[in-house]
Amino acid sequence: MRKSLIDYSEENPSRKGLCDCLTPRSRDIILSPMQYPNTIAAETHKLLSFMKNATEQQTQPMCLLIHSKRKTILSYKFPYFGPSKPCESSAEKVAILLYLLRCILVKSKLGEKSTIRDIFYLNVELFRKQQVVSDWLRIIQEAFELPSRDCLQIVAAQKGLCHTPVALICDNSHLNENNTTLIPYMKQNCDVSTDWTKIKRVIVLEKDAIFNKLIRTRKVTFDTLVVSGKGYPDFLTRLFLNRLMNSAPSSVLFEIFVDSDPYGIDIATKYTCNLDNRFYECPRLRYRGVFIHELLANSVNITGLQLLPLTLRDAVYARNLLKKLATKNLENWNTTHFTRELQRQLFFCKKAEMNTVANCTFEDYFLERKNKLGRAGN
Question: The domain at 161-370 falls in which architecture?
Answer without folding.
Answer: 3-Layer(aba) Sandwich (3.40)
